[in-house]
Amino acid sequence: MTDADALRDALSELVQVNSxxxxxxxxxxxENGSVDSLASWRTLGVLQRRGPLRVGALADASQVAQPTxxxxxxxxxxxxxxxxxxxxxxxxxxxxxxxxxxxTALAEWRAGLASVLLPYFADISEGDLDAxxxxxxxxxxxIAGLEPAEPQEVAS
Length: 156
Fold this sequence. Notes:
The protein is mainly alpha-helical. The protein folds into 2 domains: 1-35; 36-145, Winged helix-like DNA-binding domain superfamily/Winged helix DNA-binding domain (Arc Repressor Mutant, subunit A), CATH 1.10.10.10. Helices cover 67% and strands 10% of the residues. The chain has 6 helices and 2 strands, in the order H-H-H-H-E-E-H-H. Pfam families: MarR_2.
């Protein structure tokens, strides 16, 4: 097996494990009575990571249709988790940004999920914990290039 084949196999396994983790998170959220969709949390995460975005770009980044994003944003605005801010490049447009309350809500949601997952990982060794930390850093570094840039609006 070549190095490229080994890497391809490892990445395939990573995708499969990640899918199972996301499914578990959906189940945990449902079992704990979460009324917020994963799309809402994903949207807050995108905004926290990338900064203010127009609704269309946010829809693309969150992998939902623009009408769905418009509804998501309305709900997040109502909760005070996001806010509309002026677009410095176009006075007619606005962008959506995460608010301080949104940052807090997202951190609490992530901490809650981590707490639920903790018993399933409580027995890992210090070496495995270090490997997990290195893996997170490695993935974060390499997937950054996969995130699309905000689309540029064409002036008419």
